[in-house]
Design goal:
Layout (H helix, E strand, L loop, with lengths): L1 H29 L3 H22 L1 H12 L3 H24 L3 H18 L6 H21 L17 H14 L1 H4 L8 H19 L3 H19 L10 H26 L6 H7 L1
Helix pairs in contact: 2-4, 2-11, 3-4, 4-5, 5-6, 6-7, 6-11, 7-11, 9-10, 10-11
Length: about 280
């Protein structure tokens, strides 16, 4: 009996080792464009929302005016600030110019919209905004001069406590997105997704097998996103189109945050890092 258990454990370990080798191979061949993909995914929801402010100028302005019982002038200021305050930082981030300032502006946008759209009282949307904040924190970490990813083969973030804690906070926050996808459904598929997803976010949270877990979450979220939020199949004049589109790009931003976890690794505050010291 003990022999069978030992053989089973050995096979599981071999499978995990092969999966980690696969992740290392992916990182090796994607080192030149993975950071750019991560950035593009990360800012996608801000790009989409900024463009939407232009095309839905009147609707957004009137919503703020009505919702907060303020003059239309303040609604107009809100729309202008959101339009410029999202599109300009996105282009700066893609160009790698003044990235820190751009990220701080996007932080401000997230906070402003959380209050303006009364997201504070909607737990699901609040968790998603926390995920966005986590992705932005990881973007700050990635932009640090000495916070290079492990593509070059040199461990990073080893003894820099502020960056370690930033990376830990970003890692924790970015996985909140998956909590909004967990459903109490009796179907076999949903049960499997919930169990596997919960296990993966725990692994990412504690920083164990971090890259493998984060990359697996990227795959799961990508598949779920295309199946759950196919906004392109809904008439653009219907409210459902905007709702699905909003969800789709928010999920893409969280995927971008997870790709930063894959690129940067777990950081110093993680089981993976402590294992190296043992």
């Amino acid at each position: 009996m003990n022999i069978n258990i030992s053989v089973s454990e050995r096979k599981q370990q071999e499978l995990i080792n092969k999966a980690e080798d696969f992740v290392d191979t992916v990182l090796k061949y994607s080192k030149n464009y993975l950071p750019t993909i991560a950035r593009l995914c990360m800012i996608s929801t801000f790009l989409e929302d900024g463009i939407r402010m232009w095309f839905q100028w009147s609707e957004q302005r009137e919503y703020i005016s009505y919702s907060w019982s303020v003059p239309v002038f303040f609604g107009t200021l809100f729309v202008i600030f959101n339009l410029i305050g999202q599109l300009a930082p996105c282009f700066l981030i893609l160009l790698r110019k003044q990235v820190n300032i751009a990220v701080y502006v996007l932080f401000g946008i997230v906070c402003l919209q959380t209050v303006a759209y009364k997201i504070l009282w909607d737990f699901r949307f609040l968790l998603r905004n926390f995920s966005l904040a986590g992705g932005l924190i990881l973007l700050l970490v990635e932009n640090k001069p000495d916070a290079k990813s492990l593509f070059a083969g040199v461990p990073t973030l080893g003894d820099n406590k502020p960056k370690n804690y930033m990376q830990f906070a970003g890692r924790i926050l970015v996985i909140f997105m998956f909590l909004t996808l967990i459903r109490l459904d009796v179907s076999v598929l949903h049960i499997i997704v919930d169990i596997v997803g919960t296990a993966l976010i725990i692994l990412v949270a504690v920083g164990f097998k971090t890259r493998l877990s984060a990359l697996t979450l990227v795959f799961i979220l990508t598949v779920l996103n295309f199946f759950a939020n196919p906004f392109w199949t809904v008439d653009s004049n219907k409210p459902l189109h905007d709702f699905l589109k909003y969800d789709f790009f928010q999920t893409m931003s969280v995927i971008g945050g997870l790709l930063f976890v894959v690129a940067l690794g777990p950081g110093g505050v993680s089981l993976d890092e402590h294992k190296k010291r043992w």
